[in-house]
Amino acid sequence: MEQLTSIHNQHVKDWKKLQTKKARQQTGTYLLDGWHLVQEASKAGIELLELIGTADQLVAHSDLTTMAGHVYEVTEEIMKHITDTVTPQGIAAVVTMPDAHRMPAGPLKGAWLFLDRVQDPGNVGTMVRTADAAGFAGVVVGHRSADLFGPKVVRSMQGSQFHLQLFEGDLRKWIADFKSIGAPVFGTQLNPQAKNFRTVNPGDTFALVMGNEGQGMSNELLSMTTDNLYIPMRGDAESLNVAISAGILMFQLNQNLD
Amino acid sequence: MEQLTSIHNQHVKDWKKLQTKKARQQTGTYLLDGWHLVQEASKAGIELLELIGTADQLVAHSDLTTMAGHVYEVTEEIMKHITDTVTPQGIAAVVTMPDAHRMPAGPLKGAWLFLDRVQDPGNVGTMVRTADAAGFAGVVVGHRSADLFGPKVVRSMQGSQFHLQLFEGDLRKWIADFKSIGAPVFGTQLNPQAKNFRTVNPGDTFALVMGNEGQGMSNELLSMTTDNLYIPMRGDAESLNVAISAGILMFQLNQNLD
Q: Any idea what the Cα angle at residue A75 is, between residues A74 and A76, rounded to 5°?
């Protein structure tokens, strides 16, 4: 175990840099902040490359220290510096980031969520977490969405990245792939002329596409889907947050968990 | 029209104070920040007691200035001071706060949402907004929940307070009132032994109770309901945010908008 007390230490600088997409891509790693996430990773069999904790916290959870490649005891000041949390719990870990551009393992199967230019990291993370709860097999984030392994997305996912498959990619290609195996792809549209979401019966393998917070899905993607769905609601079309809409649709379309 | 340039002006101090519950209760008013909210109020026939704007914004929306009791032209510094927004739009209005402890007008009817000690203002506001979209008639906030007319709740409600009835009160009394007219009250519980939410058929008049973010509903309220509902999900019980759960349940229980 190494003890670090200065925020100018090179390790500390490297951890801090993991808040940027560039450093995450260069190193192929990202930071988990807090016990819940570190434990979820450990439960999922993810190797803790580096475990970083305050003295108190490392003692309190000595079971995890034996499982980590390197253990660093740091000050609370360093903890605050490397996380973007106001009151960090005093524990963090560096783990390998899955290659979001890999090919899916095996044939496409189950329920999938596609995100088209969703910008808010909290929305992206909450939708991944909800997809997990709804029993979805995977989430694909299209270009110009919030980065899947940024600190705010990771915090909102609450460990769901360890329970389902996450990808980044060209949604046009993903939609074409689903349609080529006869699986329906459902877009979403703030348009009462679209299909009432309660009237579709998607079967076991399908994809649902959610769009940008302000503008919705792109016209190009809307024209590629099997059907576009609408949630009938009172009042104007801005009445539902995108993460709430996604939750309503995912639990309606995937009822295999009952 | 009065021009104000100092944050030490008494009006400015009074507006700033409306961020506190005490000042809102003493004056019976609250602040709407931004054009969308001011316009929603105006559309709903709510009197704009005081309209506060920067010079540019007052010119751009001169239609509203004629409808306000008093109009104040202020600096951007004052706008920032009285709102808790990082980049305020430059317009705000003081309006009368409905008496949340009044008696409901007419017999209890339609779908209602009860909030038991929901603490996060964003969650409370989002749930009111979602209840509005789902065609609910009203929302009742129990004791020790976030205050309905605090700045963050008001921002998250996005004007839904003008479309449905809002109350504060003792949820034990509200539950008893619904049951006394034969209307079911559905609690929510993170417990697979509770009733699957897809199996209930609530009829036109009912109430749904959502609980605290960490602890859920109180045992006392759970024991008073007609039934307690559960959303079947994968993995552990913490997998759904309370506002997402509320959205899924409200759109399942109230399908009268199709």
A: 125
CA distances from A129 to A86, A157, B180 (A): 22, 5, 39
Distance separating alpha carbons of residues B235 and B255, to the nearest angstrom: 28
> What are residue B195's DSSP bridge partners?
B229
Identify which of B129, B235, B245 has the shortest CB distance to residue A132.
B235
For chain A, which domains are there?
2-96 (3.30.1330.30), 111-253 (3.40.1280.10)
Which residues 151-180 of A have a C-beta within 8 angstroms of B? 158, 160, 163
Q: For residue A237, name the pLDDT band (cuts at 50, 70, 90).
A: low
Grouping H, G, I as helix, E, B as strand and the rest as coil, residue B162 is helix
> Of A130, A233, A239, which is closest to B244 when you measure between CB atoms?
A130
Q: Does B257 lie at the interface with A, CB-CB under 8 angstroms?
A: yes
Q: DSSP state, B216?
A: B
What is the rounded CA–CA span in Å between residue B107 and residue B182? Answer: 13
Strand order in the sheet with A68-73: A2-3, A68-73, A48-53, A91-96, A29-33
Q: Is B198 on the interface with A (CB under 8 A)?
A: yes
Task: Give per-residue pLDDT as tens, A112-145.
Answer: 999 999 999 999 999 999 999 999 999 999 999 9
What's the average model confidence in pLDDT over B186-200? 92
B248/A132 Cβ within 8 A: no
With contact defined as beta carbons under 8 Å apart, do B140 and B167 qualify?
Answer: yes
Q: What is the ipTM of this complex?
A: 0.91
Contact residues on chain B for A247, CB-CB shorter than 8 A = 240, 244-245, 247-248
B-chain residue closest to A192, CA distance = B258
Pairing between β-strand A206-210 and β-strand A165-168 as defined by DSSP bridges: unpaired
Cα separations in angstroms, B255 against B110, B137, B181: 12, 13, 21
